[in-house]
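Wait, can you check?
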Amino acid sequence: MYSLCAHRGASRQVPFKNSTSHPLTLHPLSLVSSAHCVTTPKSSYIYRFSMKLAIHPLTADPTAAWHELSQHQKVVKINTKLPTTEPPSDKLRVVCMSDTHSLTPFIKFDVPAGDVFIHAGDFTKCGSLQEVIEFNNWIGNLTHKHKIVIAGNHELSFDPTFTHPFSVHTSGDHQKHTGTSILDDIPTLGMSKDTLAEAIKTTNVKDYLTNCIYLEDSEIIVNGIKIYGTPWQPEFCKWAFNVPRGEACLSKWEMIPSDTDILVTHTPPVGHGDLCCTGVRAGCVELLSTVQNRVKPKYHVFGHIHEGYGISSDGKIIYINASTCDINYLPSNSPIVFDITLPPGIKKS
């Protein structure tokens, strides 16, 4: 049983899937209430309650913003083990990965079985057609009934507004989290500037993802569980799906339905799974505000910051950085698995 909504944009006719609910609280923000109408692919109307969130004054410096916000925040690290038993009939088992960067042939673990598989972006090194085809073949071999994928900043060819930056900027403008220029043929990416340039010339690349559901500012419902996926991140290195921090980011997060059960973004929110090896925070302040004060999903799944891998909670929401690759681009981090309770009266189909 499937269904899919695209919000504030053209809808893609893709199979549908199902979801549940969540609560929350915390840091002070000024809020403005409003109701808006969302058109689904079937042209029906869904009225959702939303709150206009204020931009945090320190949004441009997430490290400083978190230093202030953390005084009123709870962050609990959670350690889990991979399940050894089948999930109960009233729960969906969700398996999460992210940031595999075309390195799935080198994964040394078995992907756990489950009902839903989620990949939170950066499944390629640069979004070349060959990489996308290889990923589609790999995910097609997984046994999960529902396979959900979003893009990340490395999927250059997936961003329709992406302009090739390498011909108009110096290499100093484009750096990785480690500070190394992405214009070099560095081992971690293994891609030359010419290869990156070629990748963005690929058209209709999303059509090659035939073995999964690709979400881009859109929602799918799996057995009553509502899953929303979005690829955007705060501007960084002028890669794909980058927008400036503050209002531009918030405008993307405002598209997330307030009744989302599982939120899938590529970027982490500030304060959860976003601490870089340099000691700075890379997460989005407005994403945390949106998640905690309006959307309140049960689970928030993301990647992007490899060294932020793991699970945390603010006492209400579970945050999962599912990055498979570590800081050295080795695909060594195990998938993260959770079971989510189905809504009353809903059975697995």
